[in-house]
Design brief:
heterodimer, A: about 250 residues, mainly alpha, MetI-like fold, 11 helices, B: about 375 residues, alpha/beta, Rossmann fold, CBS-domain, 2 domains, six-stranded mixed sheet, four-stranded antiparallel sheet, 16 strands, about 25% strand, globular, disordered C terminus
């Protein structure tokens, strides 16, 4: 089986032309990114607002629970039936819009709940200090709450990304492109190496994106929160002396 | 000066947190709010910088009604220190300290320079500047909390149980340094604690509050110990009041006796002491501890060494309080309390009965005794 997947993937014919891997990869990324950007534009501000004010947390719970329970393929069919007749387009928009709606709905819960949870989990003493120092509400949010919530927010974004990339295969089900093509077409043609190769490509793409986001997260989150300062603590003997001198002060 | 003008705080469920509080916290002094939990001390403190809005009454900063100042501007003029320091975990120590200067629009370099200056001021080494709060101990974090509150040099500081979450030894040290700092800076400070000992140690005046947010007594620490206003205050101030009150009375003229001494390292051969106890001193004449001749003469060539000394006794300075002098007597194994001069050299000894005689001769209950030692009083 592995040899067959390898053969399929290393066949240069599969990497060229309108049905080649680069084209479908680009389509797949495009569908995913559009959905994630729209979802982020909805979920992140909403999560920040609800976390900061502490009001409306029931919205988060309701959305998270109900959206997660939705059957994706069923929803896609539903939206195609509902929306497609109203779109007068010769291009792909007829199917693209319903697909994006489904992917957006899929991407929202992780980002929303994690953003909300990250903000509301900020130490109350830290928030109290920020207010007491004379920060306005928005300054507290941007300068204190958001930086401290970043690890959870990032994990929400990454988990949404993984879900959307994995699920964007369903766009092929409604005649669009993307890596899902190999799954749908492979199934129809009983070409299992093609199907398996499509699955491998999706997995590799998801992993690459996650590695990329992990790198961004590492750069964006303060070392004071991640605790990555400890590795730096070696060598300097002057510092060690000072540590010893300062020890009784603790 | 901070003035409470019949300030009350009622909650919608009917709870009265603070009930018609009238009080003045004078400029340049430490006013301590103390009382059991539920007495409204923290609520009262937080109404000063409007973290909590009073239901009625007004609070004045000098001649300004605080309710007429925008909250964020009011708070930037008031230093704020809280129990667990509340440092920003994502910012370095120097940036934590620079928080208020940056909010006030200072240039970043100037704010950081100010941060470094304050780091030193609160007794932390300069290389802590680039660390993060999680790398510091609780006591160190609290020092940073104090530095952060001082950064924009506010005339008023609010401190909400700042030292209660650190271990006792660190707390003692923080209190001492806080008093030293206040001696230099002379801020108007309102300090909340549930610990009456801390209140008495730090306060220029102490406001004892009772449950339901009523002021039970406002007095100097000495007055509080000698004349509690009622049974509640008396019970709250606690035991050993008579003894603790001696801590506020300077000993004044003290007739000491010469004490025979023996130098460290010298031979014990031929040493004599009337009651068997000899005081060992170093070559500067500073007392080191008591030596019992009976224990220490196994050989003729034995010399006075560290491990022969009894170190249980405390030592009182010539300008100490009656409490410190009496304690020196009571803790001394020979029964003679060791008194030293300003340089720490032996001045002489006194006995407990002589100190008691001094206490008995003293005018009963001086309502405004001069504060003693310790600084900041």
């Amino acid at each position: 089986m592995i040899a067959e997947i390898w053969n399929w993937l290393s066949d240069s014919a599969h990497w060229h032309g309108p049905d080649g891997v680069p084209i479908h990869l680009r389509e797949h990324l495009q569908y995913s990114l559009i959905a994630l950007l729209i979802a982020a534009a909805i979920a992140l501000p909403l999560g920040l607002l609800i976390g900061h004010t502490g009001r409306g947390s029931f919205v988060v719970v309701a959305i998270a629970n109900s959206f997660r329970a939705l059957p994706t393929v069923g929803l896609l069919t539903f939206f195609v039936i509902l929306i497609a007749p109203h779109i007068h387009s010769t291009g792909t928009a007829t199917y693209l819009i319903p697909s994006e709606i489904v992917l957006v709905l899929l991407a929202i819960p992780s980002m929303l709940t994690n953003t909300y949870a990250g903000i509301s989990a900020v130490d109350p003493a830290v928030r109290d200090a920020a207010r007491g120092m004379g920060m306005r509400g928005s300054q507290t949010l941007w300068q204190v709450e958001l930086p401290n919530a970043l690890p959870l927010i990032f994990s929400g974004i990454r988990s949404s990304f993984l879900q959307v990339i994995a699920t964007a295969t369903i766009t092929a089900y409604v005649s669009l492109g993307g890596l899902g093509r190999y799954l749908i077409d492979g199934l129809a043609q009983q070409d299992y190496p093609q199907m398996a190769s499509g699955a491998v490509l999706v997995a590799v793409l998801a992993l690459l994106i996650d590695v990329l986001l992990a790198a961004v997260q590492r750069y964006a989150v303060s070392r004071g929160i991640t605790g990555r300062y400890s590795r730096k603590r070696i060598v300097d003997p002057a510092e060690q002396q000072a540590m010893i001198a300062a020890a009784p002060l603790t | 000066m901070i003035r409470f003008d019949s300030v009350s705080k009622h909650y919608p469920d009917g709870t009265v947190a603070v009930d018609s509080l009238d009080l003045v916290a004078p400029s340049g002094q430490i006013t301590v709010f103390v009382g059991p939990s539920g007495c409204g001390k923290t609520t009262s403190l937080r109404m000063i910088n409007r973290m909590i809005e009073p239901t009625s009454g007004s609070i004045w900063l000098d001649d300004q009604d605080t309710s007429r100042i925008a909250t964020h501007e009011l708070r930037r003029q008031i230093g704020y220190v809280i129990q667990h320091a509340g440092l920003f975990p994502h910012r370095t120590i120097v940036d934590n300290i620079a928080t208020v200067p940056l909010l006030l629009g200072w240039d970043r370099n100037k704010a950081r320079a100010r941060g470094r200056e304050l780091l030193e001021r609160v007794g932390l080494p300069a290389h802590f500047a680039e660390r993060y709060p999680a790398q510091l101990s609780g006591g160190q974090q609290q020092r940073v909390g104090v530095a952060r509150a001082l950064a924009a040099d506010p005339p008023v500081m609010l401190m909400d149980e700042p030292f209660s979450a650190v271990d006792p030894i660190a707390r003692d040290q923080l209190q001492e340094e806080f008093l030293r700092l206040q001696n230099e800076l002379g801020k108007t400070i309102v300090f909340v604690t549930h610990d009456i000992d801390e209140a008495i140690k730090l306060g220029d005046q102490v406001a004892v509050l009772r449950v339901g947010g009523r002021l039970a007594q406002l007095a100097t620490p000495a007055q509080l110990l000698s004349e509690p206003a009622d049974a509640f205050v008396a019970a709250f101030v606690g035991r050993d009041r008579g003894y603790r009150a001696l801590g506020f009375t300077p000993v004044g003229e003290l007739a000491t006796h010469d004490e025979p001494t023996i130098a460290m390292g010298s031979a014990l051969t031929g040493a004599e002491a009337a009651d068997g106890w000899l005081l060992a001193v170093d070559d500067q004449g500073a007392p080191q501890g008591w030596l019992r001749l009976a224990d220490s003469r196994p050989g003729a060539d034995t010399t006075v060494t560290e491990d022969l000394l009894h170190r249980g006794g405390t030592v009182a300075g010539a300008d100490a309080s009656l409490r410190a002098v009496l304690d020196a007597c009571l803790s001394s194994p020979s029964g003679r309390g060791v008194i030293v001069d300003e340089a720490g050299r032996l001045a002489g000894t006194v006995t407990a009965s002589e100190v008691l005689a001094l206490i008995e001769r003293r005018a009963p209950a001086d309502p405004n005794p001069q504060p003693v030692g310790g600084g900041g009083q």
